[in-house]
Amino acid sequence: MNQPVPTVMLGFGAEQLGAVNAVLGDNANVIYQNREVREGLAQLVPLQPQAVLLFFSPDDIRLVLQFARRARHDAPNAALILVSTHESLEATREAVRLGARAVVVLGMDDRDLLSTFEQLRREVHETVATGTVVSFMGAKGGMGTTSIALNVASALAKDSRNRVLLMDFALFIGEVGVYLDMATPYTLGEYVRDIGRLTDDWIDERIPRHRTGFFVLSQPPEVNEIAAIEAHQIVAAVAASKRFFTHIILDAGAGISEASLGGINTSDMGIIITTQELPAIVSTGRRVNLLTQLHGDRTRIRVVVNRFQSKGATKARIEQYAGHGVSATVCNDYASMSRCIETGQLLLELAPDAEITTDISKLIRLFDDETTVETKTRKKLFGLF
Ligand SMILES: Nc1ncnc2c1ncn2[C@@H]1O[C@H](COP(=O)(O)OP(=O)(O)O)[C@@H](O)[C@H]1O
Ligand SMILES: [Mg+2]
Asked: Under 8 Å CB-to-CB from 99, ≥6 apart: which residues?
């Protein structure tokens, strides 16, 4: 079976979003949605979806046709589908002239909408986004989230077929540049603004690359610059990155911000990093609940216990408290970790044969286990914004 159709939905309220999702089921993969059509249209160039659904009220017919024209221009390969609650002859006529794939009235033409998507699913879409997005979040601060995210990125980059992007979403406390001891003149803030210009060459030229091979987007240095990044832009930037990278690793930190939630919301998998201490285990339960609400299901959540020692709480006990299975553990190795920080190196460079390096490198197997592949098709983007 072909992959679900990468879809952008613009102008839909929560209720209509629910109605369309119910009709389309597994056939659509909503990579981005925005109630504000204008804001959302600005993201079409980087996203290059296979389908654009534009919701309109027949009273705004002029405006919607203007939007539709813009959508055709910015995402020429996308199937444009206009969705309304009432029939409008004028809209239908104009939409056909514009090259729209369909004009549907919700509740009346649901079958047509579905069959259009079933058809789209059989068609080949050149710009299909294939990258996997994995977010790492700490049950609390200091769990080792950044250390693990960075070392996972370098483990992935070891395979030259992979193109890996690490995004630092631990807003205001992002330390990725410090841990890597590298200059990161080009930041997440600029990336979010430049997203319409992405090409492979452009990425090679601008985005700083760690010597182990992964690309790095760190925090902007200025607080007001961070504040200027809107959650919907983050969602679009992550979704657009899937076209250019095989893996996008987000260090979402431990704090909950609109931006980190936006990133997590777009992820194929959310990995919670915790330790064996009781407060951490209890917070893990809360994070599991939060991610379950965001994703709509628990199957894309993984719990990893860091600094695992045999004398601490057992896996079974952690699972009981956290209310979720533990997928993997990473051993405690203070000596290697502190030498990494002191020398600005990663584990694969400094201690390639250490147990901790193997433990962290093995985490990449979590990304392609079967449950993920299976649930990926059920993915829905929930209306946070
Ligand atoms: N498996 C481990 N064994 C020993 N120390 C670790 C381990 N993982 C992380 N650390 C140390 O814990 C501290 C916090 O790590 P960090 O990655 O900054 O956490 P976070 O991003 O969750 O705040 C650092 O000093 C790091 O070296
Ligand atoms: Mg951190």
From this structure: 72, 80
Measured in angstroms, how far is the CA atom of residue 380 from the centroid of ligand 2? 28
330 lines ligand 1 (CB under 6 A): yes
CA distances from 139 to 34, 120, 238 (A): 29, 40, 22
Q: Is any ligand 1 atom within 6 A of the Cβ of residue 151? A: no
> What whole-number distance in Å separates Cα of residue 357 and Cα of residue 237?
30
138 in contact with ligand 1, CB cutoff 6 A: yes
| Residues facing residue 328 across a β-bridge | 304
Atom 24 (ligand 1): residue with closest C-alpha? 144
Q: Which domains does the chain have, with CATH numbers?
A: 5-122 (3.40.50.2300), 132-369 (3.40.50.300)
Q: What is the pLDDT of residues 298-333, one digit of tens each?
A: 888 999 999 999 999 999 999 999 999 999 999 999
Q: Which of 290, 222, 285, 221 is nearest to 252 (CA)?
A: 290
